[in-house]
User: Fold this.
Amino acid sequence: MAPLTGPFPCPRFLEVWAAHCAPTGSEVFVAQSAHGAIPIWMDEGTLRFQGDADLTDYHSPLGVSIDAEVRAIAAQHGGGRFSFDSLPEETVGAFERALDRVDATFSIRVHAKALVVDLPQEPGRWLALLPKKHRHEVRRKQRRFDEALGASHYARRFDDGAFTAFVAMHRAADGRKGAFMTDQRVAFFRALLAEAGASIDLLSVENRPVAAAFGFAEAGAYYLYNSAYDPALSHAAPGIVLLASMLEQSVTDGVVRFDFLKGDERYKYHLGARERNLSVIEGVFS
Assistant:
C-alpha cells in the first residue's frame, strides 16, 4: 500500500529473511485476500510484520485494501498483542481505520526515521544543490582521497568477489558494526544478493577494495541497505567518496530518489537527505 518501500514488503525479501533470520519455531504466515496481503509472524506472543525491525527498513501491507486481512487476523488472535512497526505515513491511516473497525485498542507513534535524498534530473546538479558548507566538504574529501590514495574505480557489481570484499570490510569495523556481520547474517546477505535483487557498489584503488555499499536498485529509486569501508583508510574518507560517486551516478542514470533508509547519522543530512517518518502501531485485538 505504501509507495517507495523498496524490496522490504515483497515476497522475495521476506522469504530470504524467513529462511535465514526468523527464530526457530516461530509462526510465520500471510493474511491474504483478493485485495491485499499482510505478512505476519508471531514473536514471543506479539504479532508483528515479517522481517524484524533491525533488518527490515520499511513495512507495509500489499494491495489496495487491508480490511479483510485485519478482520481475519483479529478473529484468529482475539485478545492478542500486536506491534506493527516501520510504517511510512502513507499506510498509517488505512491501518488505523481497519483496526478501528475490529474494535482494537491501540496507539500510534513515530519511532524511527528514514533519510531520503530527492535527486535532481540534471547531471552535476546534486552536488551544486547542497548547502555551500557541505558541498565544499564533499569536494575537500574527494581531493584528500585522490591525494592520499590516487585515482579510484567505481562500479556496481553482483559477483562473489565484491561480496567477499564487502563482508571483510564490514567485519573489520570497530564495535557493534563489526560484530553485526555474524555468519548467519553473512548467509542472509549472500542470499539477498543471489535471490532478492541486491547489488554491491564497490570503490577500488588499483584493484584494492576500499569501500562498498550493499543495496537495491529499482526503477527511479535506490535503497542503501548497508555499507562498509577499509578502516585502515579512514583518514581518506572512502565511504563519503563512494557515496558521492553513487549519488552522482544515480542522477546520470535517471534515479530520482536515493534512500539511505533507517538511521539519522549526520553525514546523510550533509549529503542532502530529508526525513521520512516511520510509525509503530501497538495494541491489543478485542
